[in-house]
Write a structure and sequence with these properties.
The protein is elongated. 53% of the residues lie in helices and 0% in strands. The protein has 265 residues and is mainly α. The protein contains eight helices and no strands.
């Protein structure tokens, strides 16, 4: 983007993720480079990594949920939860003579046993679950703001500059779906995984693992294959703040959305 660096001093960079990068496809897959050049090889590797991240984010959270279910999907049965010991479960087996975790028989277990035996861990897990859900709400709000800015910037450029046609809007739609999908499932998983931890150490590791999962697609995040230099966040923020947002509503109205905008906003 041909914007002078001196113009960007008072602008805050727009946060981005791999889906935002997909809107500007040449940042990941340059079309002008030789097929066998080092630049093209690196770009294709980055593109492949992005596909892997989408697969992990789409499949990972529901698989975590299914692994905690009585069918023990994807795990060894001995490593699964003992639903026979939970009084509200349809698999509750009060006459079963095999021991539950903690050494009691199913008929001797009540819903407050964990709170009596490992109160500090249960209290901490409750705090973590609340933090996790609240953080998910803030993340959704932040992603929504970024999505709207990028989407309106693209609409403005398409409307005001007829020679400019941005074809990457499908990436924005995919990003909105995947982000909501991951955060929704991660909050459900937080109850099953964090809420069932038996020690503070397991609680910390599981909570950080879920956070890592839904921050996996962020630019400048834990994975280093895409960094801030790949994302023109400052330049896009400048276009929006200096050109799109101040534009008169008669020329371009940000609130008059098309069908895609109504669906995702």
């Amino acid at each position: 983007l041909l914007i002078d660096e001196d113009w960007l001093g008072k602008i805050d960079a727009l946060p981005g993720n791999i889906f935002c990068l997909g809107v500007f496809g040449n940042f990941l897959r340059p079309k002008d480079s030789n097929m066998f050049s080092h630049e093209n090889l690196i770009s294709n590797m980055k593109f492949f990594m992005c596909i892997l991240i989408v697969i992990v984010q789409v499949l990972g959270p529901p698989l975590i949920f299914l692994s905690a279910m009585p069918q023990h999907f994807g795990i060894v049965e001995d490593d699964g939860y003992k639903w026979k010991c939970w009084v509200f479960s349809q698999y509750y087996a009060p006459n079963d003579l095999s021991e539950c975790p903690g050494g009691k028989l199913p008929r001797d277990v009540d819903i407050l046993d964990d709170w009596r035996s490992i109160f500090s861990t249960r209290f901490l897990s409750t705090i973590f679950m609340l933090m996790f859900i609240l953080n998910g709400i803030f993340v959704v709000q932040s992603e929504l703001k970024t999505w709207k800015i990028i989407y309106n910037t693209l609409r403005y450029l398409d409307q005001v500059t007829p020679c400019f046609q941005m074809t990457g809007r499908n990436y924005l739609s995919l990003g909105a779906f995947v982000n909501c999908w991951v955060i929704l499932w991660s909050c459900i998983d937080a109850y099953l995984i964090i809420g069932a931890c038996a020690s503070p150490r397991d609680l910390m590791f599981d909570a950080l693992g879920l956070l890592f999962l839904y921050n996996l697609d962020d630019i400048g995040g834990d994975l280093g294959f895409i960094d801030e230099d790949d994302w023109p966040g400052l330049q896009i923020a400048w276009i929006y703040e200096e050109i799109v947002h101040p534009c008169d509503d008669e020329i371009f109205d940000e609130n008059k959305l098309d069908m895609r905008g109504h669906i995702f906003l």
